[in-house]
Amino acid sequence: MAKGTISALVELIAQASKIVEAAYESAEKPWVPDLDDVEPHPLDEHVWSKELKTAVQTIEGACAQLCATIAKPSYTLAHKNLGFIEPVCINVALTYKIPDLLMKKPEGMHITEIGEKTGLEPSKVGRVLRLLATKHVFREVSENVFANNRLSVLLNSQNPLYSLGLHATDHVQKSANSLTDVLGDKEWGHSFSPKHTAFNRYSQFPGSLFEYFEGGTPKGSEVGARFGRGMVAWAQAFDSEAVIDQFPWMEIGERATVCDVGGGVGNMLIALAKRYPKLRLTLQDLPERTLQARMEVWPVKCPEAIAEKRIEFQPIDFLKEAPVPGCQIYYLKNIIHDWPDSEAITILSNVRKAMHPSSRALLHEFILQSTNRLPASEAKYEQAPEPLLPNYGLGRITQYYVDLNMMVQVNSEERRLSEYIKLGEAAGLQFEKLWDFGTTGLVEYRLNNAGANL
């Protein structure tokens, strides 16, 4: 059994590697980047095709499954138990802006000089960097001399990945350390209140994470601002704009109406407005966010849409109000995952009130898959080829990281497709289709017969 599994996993890696190599070689600059490179490759800035994403996920999942298959179980588990060390080391590098230092000396910097410039003890900072270099972040060009590489160079303080990294390795990790205690708490462990979370236990803040971010404390405002900067990197890392490329917007009509519900300052709509300049767009969020979008963001990033009156800004509290009525598309990105079922149904019910018979509601989220394989006739989503886990294992692990992060931070969750179908039905919406973008997915609803009369 294991022998056949090993050969099958190796074959999957070989096949997927050819797809990745072909993608790099057909790019504007036909070369495959080396980890020692610090110059970006053209593909780094592009939205990747689903085929390319799936190939990379296959390699990631198969390599991890191969290692778990062939190594001693005790060895594998010992490594997993020590996995917390890597983000701790990343936090050290970010806090002391070591990638920035090394950008000034591309040939490499000795740990003595790094120590002088950061105030850290040289041998200790060297040990931190050596672990990271072993994990392919930074490189040791000669003994105790470190330089940036393809990964670490992106952690400089001008890159939003810097803010994302600090947020994840500081606020999130410290909150997550309280999860075991919270789950075992007789009251909090069975609660879905956003005020009974591991974040609350760690921070001692009595309100929700969103209240904390919006000025609950001076520290909370600082963390919230850092989180906002980091989300720019998150959107790029996980190809949020895949929805622009891979959903058939022109099929709804070139002058169709699109409402982004809870869309922040409208980054997705800006991309949509530039790609499809005849669409009629409405951005809805809390009053302060729509005001920021109208006065600060769109005049700089997409003034033509304002001049041509293709964009409207309408405040909304989506827990209490319906969006503007009669749009062809109601788009909600990373909204439902912030809320437990009861509030999620309220939000979707309010969207349903605004819809007409030809409207569609689109939820753009991570769509979790279970790790058990279903018969092909029963699966509503693509399953990875055997012997991989049907959810691609480590290849799509981000979804599960985020799911647990939502539990830690706000007591909500990422969901499986079956759960989104049930939420829609409870709100009077009928599931139509899952659009799989390879990383995230788009759940499409229409009104069901009952929903049309509610």
From TrEMBL:
Gene Ontology MF, one: protein dimerization activity
UniProt lineage: Eukaryota, Fungi, Dikarya, Basidiomycota, Agaricomycotina
Protein name from the UniProt record: Uncharacterized protein
Domain of life the protein comes from: Eukaryota
Keywords assigned: Methyltransferase, S-adenosyl-L-methionine, Transferase
UniProt cross-references to Pfam families, sorted A to Z: Dimerisation (PF08100), Methyltransf_2 (PF00891)
Domain named O-methyltransferase C-terminal: residues: 222-429
Domain O-methyltransferase dimerisation residue range list: 82-155
Organism the protein comes from: Panaeolus cyanescens
Gene3D superfamilies: Vaccinia Virus protein VP39, Winged helix-like DNA-binding domain superfamily/Winged helix DNA-binding domain
Membrane-spanning intervals of the chain: none
Stored PROSITE patterns: SAM_OMT_II
GO biological process annotation, one example: methylation
PANTHER family (alphabetical): O-METHYLTRANSFERASE CICE, PUTATIVE (AFU_ORTHOLOGUE AFUA_4G14580)-RELATED
